[in-house]
């Protein structure tokens, strides 16, 4: 009887140790390094730096032909003392990252504008995605000068849902998603 418990405990321990690499697998991360809004000609423009690091699952999905969706969520909120802060403007900037196996290039497509750029390396594509330059976010005339406002920014990376025969590929990665924390700063006129 005693030997049975010892073997069982040993099996449980071996099973737990076998699961450790799975639990410690790198899922990737997204971080907003810095961001600011600049007022020019009556319009606020967003400039930001983000760090994208994809995990093993995302790299496998890309290599298998499954594109990644990247979304920047930008909110302008009016600060109030005792009530919730209402959102004055909400902007979603969407990108798609894919790997073209035939040309061995990474493609970044701005979903909002349709513009597409190719890169020789994944690192080059992620560095470019992490640079946000002069993205218009709100017209200053829509803001009341007596109020205080903040801008909030976060980034989300998700496995794209495919349709048709390729949808079977997303079964392996359908729960993978990473997002940054909200990065917030006051909007200065």
Protein model, in words:
The protein has 3 helices and 10 strands, in the order αββαββββαββββ. By secondary structure, it is α+β, with helices and mostly antiparallel strands. It is flat. Strands 3, 4, 5, 6, 8, 9 and 10 form a 7-stranded antiparallel sheet that branches. It has one domain. About 10% of the residues have low confidence. A hairpin with a 7-residue loop joins strand 3 and strand 4. The protein starts with a helix and ends with a strand.
List the helices and strands and how they pair.
Elements: H1 2-23, E1 28-40, E2 43-54, H2 56-63, E3 68-79, E4 87-100, E5 105-110, E6 116-119, H3 122-129, E7 131-139, E8 148-159, E9 177-179, E10 183-186
Antiparallel strand pairs: 1-2, 2-7, 3-4, 3-8, 4-5, 5-6, 8-9, 8-10
Residue ranges: pLDDT <50 for 5 or more in a row?
Answer: 19-25, 162-173
Structural class: alpha+beta
How many independent structural domains?
A: 1
* Helical percentage: 10-25%
Number of helices: 3
N-to-C order of helices and strands: HEEHEEEEHEEEE
How many distinct beta strands? Answer: 10
């Amino acid at each position: 009887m005693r030997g049975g418990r010892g073997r069982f405990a040993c099996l449980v321990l071996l099973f737990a140790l076998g699961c450790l690499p799975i639990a410690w697998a790198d899922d990737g991360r997204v971080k907003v390094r810095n961001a600011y809004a600049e007022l020019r000609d009556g319009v606020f423009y967003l400039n930001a730096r983000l760090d994208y690091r994809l995990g093993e699952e995302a790299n496998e999905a890309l290599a298998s032909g499954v594109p990644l969706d990247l979304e920047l969520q930008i909110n302008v909120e009016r600060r109030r003392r005792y009530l919730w802060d209402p959102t004055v403007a909400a902007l979603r900037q969407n990108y798609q990252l894919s790997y073209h196996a035939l040309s061995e290039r990474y493609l970044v497509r701005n979903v909002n504008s349709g513009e597409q750029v190719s890169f020789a390396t994944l690192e080059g594509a992620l560095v470019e995605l992490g640079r946000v330059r002069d993205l218009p976010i709100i017209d200053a005339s829509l803001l009341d000068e007596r109020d205080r406002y903040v801008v909030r920014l976060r980034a989300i990376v998700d496995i794209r849902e495919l349709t048709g025969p390729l949808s079977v590929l997303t079964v392996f990665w359908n729960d993978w998603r990473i997002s940054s924390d909200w990065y917030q700063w006051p909007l200065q006129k």
